[in-house]
């Protein structure tokens, strides 16, 4: 075909080729040109509103994305574009924060690395008036060197929910010590149902709670490893016991944060967050009870992991002030939206004490019990505990729980990494 | 089709930069040069921007302490390399890779060669069988991994593998979560075999079709027995070039293993190949780009050395291949 085109056509062909190449290049560069999620156009001149990008991870409950967009639309002082991120939000956020093409406002959890590398700005000025309305733990988890860097959006307690009928049938009371839990899980295991679901990795999510329940902690107040004593080793060893007994469900299609396993009757107990309460109540009705991760023994207390998400303003944003204003508007001033976000999809505890106190949906049933357990036994993340330390601790857990390694020896290995990190960060 | 394809083939080699005297002729060359750059330019630009620049940048980063930043300021010399070479997790990831390669490379080689021989011998519906075995190559690793994880090898009673085993009274196996015995290798190896066998089979078929039929005829005349003898003394030696490239490609692909490990079992310390580990420390939540870059470059050097060794041993690229 092309060879028979007359010579005169060459020009046209050249032109087409060139135009095509250019168009392809343009499309290519446009496609690569950082989709920040910010609305396009609307330049800053002439008093036009600024554009802000707000990043979320993907919440599991239906309606959450629409809600986030609704809040953004309701804000009139800036054009806020919501970017909803399925999959590996952490990695995407990390690379987004390396440049100014990332988010202006984003949700995450604070760690000292973000502050050291100037990724987030202090928000003391916007939280000052209402600081006393936040719990101590929620403030501490977002405070470094006396500055508050984030506004807690939701509090997500993680506890153990169980099928009352199954425990009653086996004549088992809610466990009060880790040994009780290990025994209960073993007893409740049949050929069809496993005793407990603590995640497909065999229970790494229980590492923190087990540590707290032994009286230990990740880092002490004077920034030393707080997980190095024999009690911690003993608590972690019991997680292996539960795994070795084959009382934990493994290889479920969904992981621990999804109520699928308990709802489908695959297990009698499941480690999961309060966010799943509406889904579990819908599937199981009132056949649902709750207890905190039990204490190692009478010397220590049970533990609830009080996780959650926090709103931050990126230091690389071109409109830090506008972003701060938006964060204040949404997460401090708009009580109605905060209530909607915390209670109308999954269940989360509103971080504002004043809101939590009048949250009707959290006043009854297992939700109310969970809130009570959180107040009594809640532990929040320590922002000085960096992801590198976290990885070392996870490796420790995998080796202890799955491979049956000696907890004390593994603790020594993890301690080495943690010490290195501490000396890098604090000298 | 073939005649028109021939028409498009440029009659002279694309000789950019070579200038010849003579008005019209020169214009033609200039046009060719322009066309050359027009076609090659975008790819060269892409290669420079998305491959070479990051490699150089990575080299720079590997000498710095670079947490949460790609423009670091604290020079640490070779410390990152020393850390990585003494990091037991990195070393164990190389061990994981070795186990993986020991399984996957020979298995892929033997099975894709066997498939190629079978498909090549089929008298009817040859194209059909070729396509059927090649089709999985078009499937993404992520999609295949999710199918493997969620429906075939999930650990509960309604997973496909467990359902089949339960007919024989075998207890449910948590394929991806059990470390003793290490059942997770079965899904990991099988998903890659399913995905890549077809591709290597096509390479072998191409190799088989290049073998001169007169060699077989001569062998018959000389009294060689069909079957093993013909395969051993005619087919296999004739396939040497193809075999060596399959081995090299296969080993490099194994070094680059990421998708199926990441999607099937995640970043766990008992079975993470080097790339999953490096991803975890540099692009995951840790964001330690200095150590990550050093590790990536160490890995690149290892791949280069191994490929060189392989080439030496098998004599790939020698005259006559």
UniProtKB/TrEMBL annotation, chain A:
InterPro entries (alphabetical): Bact_solute-bd_prot1 (IPR050490), SBP (IPR006059), TAT_signal (IPR006311)
PANTHER family: ARABINOSE-BINDING PROTEIN-RELATED, DIACETYLCHITOBIOSE BINDING PROTEIN DASA
Protein name from the UniProt record: Sugar ABC transporter substrate-binding protein
Organism of origin: Kribbella antibiotica
Automatic annotation (TrEMBL), chain B:
Domain ABC transmembrane type-1: from-to ranges: 94-310
Name under which the protein is recorded: Sugar ABC transporter permease
Transmembrane segments: 35-57, 94-120, 127-148, 184-206, 239-258, 278-306
Localisation per UniProt entry: Cell membrane
Keyword Transmembrane attached: yes
One Gene Ontology cellular component: plasma membrane
Pfam families xref list: BPD_transp_1
Region (Disordered): 1-20
């Amino acid at each position: 075909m092309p060879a028979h085109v007359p010579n005169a056509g060459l020009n046209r062909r050249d032109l087409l080729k060139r135009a095509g190449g250019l168009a392809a290049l343009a499309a290519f560069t446009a496609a690569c040109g950082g989709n920040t999620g910010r609305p396009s156009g609307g330049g800053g001149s002439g008093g036009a509103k600024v554009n802000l990008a707000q990043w979320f991870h993907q919440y599991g409950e239906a309606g959450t994305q629409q809600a986030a967009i609704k809040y953004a639309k309701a804000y009139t002082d800036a054009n806020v574009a919501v970017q909803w991120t399925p999959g590996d939000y952490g990695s995407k956020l990390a690379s987004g924060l390396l440049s100014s093409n990332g988010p202006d406002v984003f949700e995450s959890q604070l760690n000292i690395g973000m502050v050291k590398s100037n990724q987030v700005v202090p928000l003391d000025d916007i939280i000052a008036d209402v600081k006393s309305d936040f719990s101590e733990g929620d403030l501490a988890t977002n405070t470094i060197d006396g500055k508050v860097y984030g506004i807690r959006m939701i509090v997500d307690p993680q506890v153990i929910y169980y099928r009352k009928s199954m425990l009653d049938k086996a004549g088992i009371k809610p466990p009060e010590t880790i040994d009780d839990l290990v025994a209960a899980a073993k007893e409740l295991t049949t050929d069809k149902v496993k005793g407990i679901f603590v995640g497909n990795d065999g229970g790494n999510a229980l590492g923190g709670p087990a540590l707290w329940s032994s009286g230990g902690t990740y880092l002490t107040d004077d920034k030393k490893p707080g997980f190095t004593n024999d009690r911690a080793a003993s608590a972690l060893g019991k997680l292996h016991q539960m795994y070795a007994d084959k009382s934990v469900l493994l290889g479920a299609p969904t992981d621990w944060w999804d109520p699928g396993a308990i709802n489908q009757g695959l297990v009698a107990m499941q480690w999961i967050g309060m966010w799943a309460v509406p889904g579990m109540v819908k599937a199981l009705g009132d056949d649902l009870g709750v207890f905190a991760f039990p204490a190692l023994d009478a010397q220590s207390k049970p533990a609830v992991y009080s996780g959650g998400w926090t709103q931050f303003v990126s230091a690389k944003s071109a409109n830090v002030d506008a972003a701060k204003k938006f964060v204040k508007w949404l997460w401090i001033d708009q009580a109605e939206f905060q209530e909607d976000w915390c209670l109308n999809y999954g269940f989360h505890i509103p971080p504002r004490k004043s809101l939590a106190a009048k949250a009707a949906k959290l006043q009854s049933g297992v939700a109310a019990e969970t809130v009570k357990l959180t107040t009594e036994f809640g532990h929040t993340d320590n922002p000085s505990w960096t992801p590198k330390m976290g990885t070392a601790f996870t490796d420790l857990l995998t080796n202890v729980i799955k491979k049956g390694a000696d907890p004390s020896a593994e603790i020594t290995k993890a301690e080495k990494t943690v010490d290195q990190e501490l000396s890098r960060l604090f000298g | 089709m073939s005649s028109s394809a021939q028409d498009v083939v440029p009659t002279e080699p694309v000789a950019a930069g070579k200038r010849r005297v003579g008005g019209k002729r020169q214009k033609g060359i200039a046009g060719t040069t322009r066309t050359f750059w027009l076609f090659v330019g975008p790819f060269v630009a892409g290669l420079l921007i998305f491959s070479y620049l990051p490699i150089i940048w990575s080299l720079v980063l590997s000498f710095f302490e670079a947490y949460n930043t790609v423009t670091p300021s604290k020079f640490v010399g070779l410390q990152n390399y020393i850390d990585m070479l003494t990091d037991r997790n990195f070393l164990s990831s190389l061990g994981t890779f070795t186990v993986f390669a020991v399984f996957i490379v020979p298995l892929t080689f033997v099975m894709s060669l066997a498939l190629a021989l079978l498909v090549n011998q089929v008298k009817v519906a040859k194209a059909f069988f070729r396509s059927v075995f090649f089709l999985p190559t078009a499937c993404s690793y992520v999609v295949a991994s999710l199918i493997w994880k969620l429906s075939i090898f999930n650990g509960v009673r309604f997973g496909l593998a467990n359902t089949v085993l339960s007919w024989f009274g075998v207890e449910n196996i948590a394929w991806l979560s059990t470390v003793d015995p290490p059942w997770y290798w079965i899904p990991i190896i099988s998903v890659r075999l399913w995905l890549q066998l077809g591709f290597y089979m096509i390479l072998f078929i191409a190799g088989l079709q290049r073998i001169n039929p007169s060699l077989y005829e001569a062998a018959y005349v000389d009294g060689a027995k069909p079957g093993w003898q013909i395969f051993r003394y005619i087919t296999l030696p004739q396939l040497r070039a193809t075999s060596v490239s399959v081995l090299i490609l296969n080993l490099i692909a194994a070094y680059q293993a990421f998708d199926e490990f990441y999607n099937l079992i995640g970043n766990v310390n008992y079975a993470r190949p080097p790339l999953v580990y490096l991803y975890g420390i540099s692009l995951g939540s840790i964001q330690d780009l200095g150590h990550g870059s050093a590790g990536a470059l160490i890995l690149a050097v290892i791949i280069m050395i191994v490929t060189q060794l392989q080439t030496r041993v098998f004599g790939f690229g020698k005259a006559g291949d």
